[in-house]
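User: I'll paste a sequence; please echo it back and then give the predicted structure.

Assistant: Echoing your sequence first, then the prediction.
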Amino acid sequence: MNSFKDKQSIYFFKEKLQRQSPTFNIIEDYYVKKVHSEESRLKMSRSHTGLKHSDEVKAKMSKSHAGKSNHTGKKHSESTKSQISHKMKSKKQVLGKKIIYNPSTDQERRVEDIINLPKGFRRGRDPEVINNMHYGLLRSSYSK
């Protein structure tokens, strides 16, 4: 994209672009977006329907994505760091606590002292939750 020295140049370029290609949609003064008609979008959709990648292409894509992470080479802003910090501070309440389970009331809790358990409670999670791998999902409303 061209660089502009003043607002007038932006407006001139905007009008020129609209005259040359009416399919471009100019949003505000700095963002140009190509807009496709419904007919064109339908044609593109039909042309890609049923398209399958060969094993060779799949292997190339896999190799090109290997070792990449979504946040590689990026840094968190200060506001994001403070938000993460704030969220992590609330997680300290579970450090050092153990889960206990009451089969008669079907409740789970976190406690620090597992020697003097409340009446009816035993150490560990609900066996059904463990078998179904639903850690924290079924009993999250009961945990205190």
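Residues 7-20 form the longest helix (14 residues). Confidence is low (pLDDT under 50) at residues 137-144.
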